[in-house]
Amino acid sequence: MSELVWGAGAAVGAGAAWYAYRANLLRRQANARLNEGLPVETEREAVEVHPYLVRRSWIPYTAGGAALLLLLFVVGLPIVFSVAIAIVVGVLAHLIEDSMHEARLAKLETQLANSMDLMVAALHGGAGLAQAIESASGETPEPIKSEWQEVLGRMRYGEPPVQVFDDFSKRIPLESFRLFSFTMIVHSEVGGSLAPILATVGRSIRDRIEIARRVRSQSTEARASVMGILLIIYFLGLLMWRTNPPAFERFVAHELGQNLLAGALILQALGMLWIAKIAKLRF
Fold this sequence. Notes:
Blueprint: H1 2-34, H2 58-75, H3 79-124, H4 129-139, H5 144-156, H6 161-171, H7 175-190, H8 194-243, H9 245-253, H10 255-279
Helix pairs in contact: 2-3, 3-4, 3-8, 3-10, 4-5, 5-6, 6-7, 7-8, 8-9, 8-10, 9-10
């Protein structure tokens, strides 16, 4: 029976790896088709993503590996239980890290909206673009403060605004920042009054932030319900053990019972990943 469980796990892992490879291949092919016929840009130094947005992908693997070693060599659980619980711990660590990453993204978008309000006020007061960005840089905290300072410094050194704001959108690759950078690039090419345009873009960004908050609040109830159901399962297991300890212990000690319990834990981990994927909407 254990060979069947390991075989099924290997098949699921291979299927997930193939799905990820296929999705990445299709994405690269689509990007290649979109870039066909475009003029070749002059090579310049690659733009790195802001450190505030870097994903800490090592956390789930470290948490799962530490749990596996602890359960195997310290607690002394069977390997099927240790592997299953380590997978659950890794998934929980991944969900926590993903939630923290989403909070960082929301903070950056909120800071961008606040900065744009300051820029619009400065532009209405008769200031130029550089003075408006300097005003936003002086009133905005980190992590976006350093980005405004870099944009301002590069503009004062005479770099083209198109290149400056294009790098700005690549360093913080979020939809709101792309919209802002596109607006600034278009304005630098065609001119016109910037304050009304930035005010409109700022309202659009705030609307996106408000929609994202409503989506999170609506999905929180569903996710809490699912987590409650998962916790009830452990409560039922504890209740079964308290009701008839000998029968429950024989079930856990048997190879079939161990494989079934380990399979249930792995399915719970997959279910948590699935629910998190469904609840994460993009718009």
